[in-house]
User: Which sequence fits this backbone?
């Protein structure tokens, strides 16, 4: 445990090395910084994750004695849609496979995990039991699913809590709608992005951003900003191919949109 504590304080991404995850190294550092902030504010915190696959992002919470409860929701599809246009396949995607892997690294601690095989669009908020302190949304990467998962988390989380998204440059329109929901409801919140592609919403009075590790990432937020733009740059490269440039130039000339007085 002492080794775990020292690694967590250093945001050492080796804490993710036992279970393969689909996280960038910077994502791992950002998530560990968030974990540091949550455990400091709420010793005995509870963690809800939507979209667990092999449990890669669960492992640092599982090893953390200050995390009392973990809820994993995953509908476990063989494949699922994605805003990038392709369907992504997940072979041997089962809850038991995830639990078996996590048990190998954490033994009896795996008992603090509650698993729910399902879709948040079909679950009642009380399915998770007592309200949680932090949620991590990393399920189906569509705007519709991101909004649905967010609404579920909004009901399942405490008034003062945090909701994190992964793959923000993919579901950015969904995240924008989530922000709109908060504004329409008049709810207090803070929102910001962390490298590489993590988006954080602090609900109510839950100032994770005061954690020095997070504050440092926010001060140097170019890492998140530039990465997010480059993440989607292939769309710009495609749109700038010769036939599309020619079409835009013709339309601009016809409309006079390329002339300024």
Assistant:
């Amino acid at each position: 445990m002492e080794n775990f504590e020292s690694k967590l304080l250093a945001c050492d991404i080796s804490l993710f090395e036992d279970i393969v995850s689909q996280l960038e190294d910077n994502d791992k550092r950002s998530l560990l910084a968030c974990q540091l902030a949550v455990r400091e504010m709420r010793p005995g915190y509870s963690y809800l994750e939507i979209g667990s696959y092999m449990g890669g992002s669960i492992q640092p919470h599982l090893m953390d004695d200050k995390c009392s409860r973990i809820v994993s929701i995953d509908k476990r599809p063989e494949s699922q849609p994605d805003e990038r246009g392709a369907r992504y396949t997940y072979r041997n995607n089962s809850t038991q496979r995830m639990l078996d892997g996590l048990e190998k690294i954490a033994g009896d601690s795996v008992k603090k995990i509650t698993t729910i095989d399902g879709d948040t669009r079909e679950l009642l908020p009380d399915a998770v039991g007592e309200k949680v302190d932090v949620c991590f949304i990393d399920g189906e990467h569509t705007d519709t699913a991101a909004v649905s998962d967010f609404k579920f988390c909004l009901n399942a989380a405490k008034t003062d809590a945090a909701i994190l998204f992964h793959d923000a440059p993919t579901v950015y329109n969904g995240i924008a709608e989530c922000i709109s929901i908060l504004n329409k409801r008049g709810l207090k919140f803070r929102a910001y992005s962390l490298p590489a592609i993590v988006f954080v919403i602090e609900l109510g009075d839950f100032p994770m951003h005061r954690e020095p590790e997070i504050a440092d990432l926010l001060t140097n937020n170019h890492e998140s900003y530039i990465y997010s733009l480059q993440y989607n740059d292939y769309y710009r490269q495609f749109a700038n191919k010769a036939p599309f440039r020619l079409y835009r130039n013709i339309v601009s000339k016809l409309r006079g949109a390329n002339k300024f007085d």
About this structure: The domain at 2-220 is CATH 3.40.50.150 (Rossmann fold). The chain has a mean pLDDT of 93. The two ends are 69 Å apart (CA to CA).
